């Protein structure tokens, strides 16, 4: 499901046109700043591409009653038949034996599974959220689609496992060779700062299935 920068914005423009809206009106309908989808804002002041966050895309799809499968078609993606993704409870992710040291799932034949309607990297898996520590972004029962192979960028939602066995989902603020800074999704919880030698692996959250 690795939509490119151009495919994501193509999908937004095509969705707006399909609904008879301008990009600005589409953003407003989703409860976002009306200028969020303006073409002038798709490139940052420093010249870097501005990616649409997964949270914003979720709001757009919900506001327009559009499925993710429909959005992918609007973005120009070829749609394949559904595949089964290994599913693990979030509480189990901190235990030994489920992942290797790079964050790839091991022995996933014994995991539960969910259906996902498009092609994905073969090593993707899903984590089911438990508890309330990730609200309001993710709620109990949400399934997070995780890709250990995807490139991680500033602002991405990521799942991180520390060498002490703690597993958490945060927003990536900064990552260097020495330091990892993470923003908590729930404002009631503090942000986290780690030395990279404390981290076992870090993987990108591609999508959430509710």
Word description of this protein:
There is one protein chain. The chain has 210 residues and is of the alpha+beta class. It is built from four helices and nine strands. The chain has a nine-stranded mixed β-sheet with strand order 2-1-3-4-9-5-6-7-8, with no helix packed on it. The protein is globular. The relative contact order is 0.14.
Arithmetic mean pLDDT: 87
Query: What is the 3D form?
Result: globular
Task: Give the class-level CATH name of the largest domain.
Answer: Mainly Beta
Report the C-alpha radius of gyration, rounded: 18 Å
- Helix percent reads 10-25%
* Spatial separation of the terminal alpha carbons: 17 Å
- Spatial order of the strands in the main sheet? 2-1-3-4-9-5-6-7-8
CATH architecture of the largest domain: Ribbon
Q: The biggest beta sheet, please?
A: 9 strands, mixed
Tally of individual helices: 4
Q: In CATH, what is the homologous superfamily of the largest domain?
A: Umud Fragment, subunit A
Beta fraction of the residues?
A: 25-35%
Structural class of the helix and strand makeup?
A: alpha+beta
List the helices and strands and how they pair.
Elements: H1 5-18, H2 23-29, H3 54-63, H4 68-74, E1 83-89, E2 112-116, E3 125-128, E4 143-147, E5 157-162, E6 167-175, E7 179-183, E8 192-195, E9 199-209
Parallel strand pairs: 1-3
Antiparallel strand pairs: 1-2, 3-4, 4-9, 5-6, 5-9, 6-7, 7-8
Helix pairs in contact: 1-4
What labels describe this entry?
210 residues; alpha+beta; 434 Repressor (Amino-terminal Domain); Umud Fragment, subunit A; 2 domains; 9-stranded mixed β-sheet; 4 helices; globular
């Amino acid at each position: 499901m690795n939509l490119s920068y151009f495919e994501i914005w193509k999908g937004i423009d095509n969705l707006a046109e399909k609904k008879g809206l301008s990009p600005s009106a589409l953003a407003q309908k989703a409860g976002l700043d009306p200028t969020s989808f303006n073409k002038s804002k798709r490139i940052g002041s420093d010249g870097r591409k501005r990616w649409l966050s997964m949270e914003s895309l979720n709001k757009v799809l919900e506001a327009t009653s559009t499925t993710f499968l429909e959005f992918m078609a609007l973005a120009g993606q070829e749609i394949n038949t559904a595949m089964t993704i290994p599913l693990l409870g979030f509480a189990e992710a901190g235990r030994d034996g489920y992942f290797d040291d790079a964050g790839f799932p091991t022995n996933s034949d014994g995991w539960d599974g969910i259906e996902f309607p498009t092609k994905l990297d073969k090593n993707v898996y899903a984590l089911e959220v438990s508890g309330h520590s990730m609200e309001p972004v993710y709620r109990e029962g949400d399934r997070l689609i995780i890709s250990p192979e995807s490139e991680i960028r500033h602002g991405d939602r990521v799942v991180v496992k520390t060498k002490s066995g703690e597993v958490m989902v945060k927003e990536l603020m900064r990552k260097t060779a020495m330091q990892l800074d993470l923003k908590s999704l729930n404002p009631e919880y503090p942000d986290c700062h780690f030395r990279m030698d404390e981290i076992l692996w870090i993987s990108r959250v591609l999508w959430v299935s509710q």
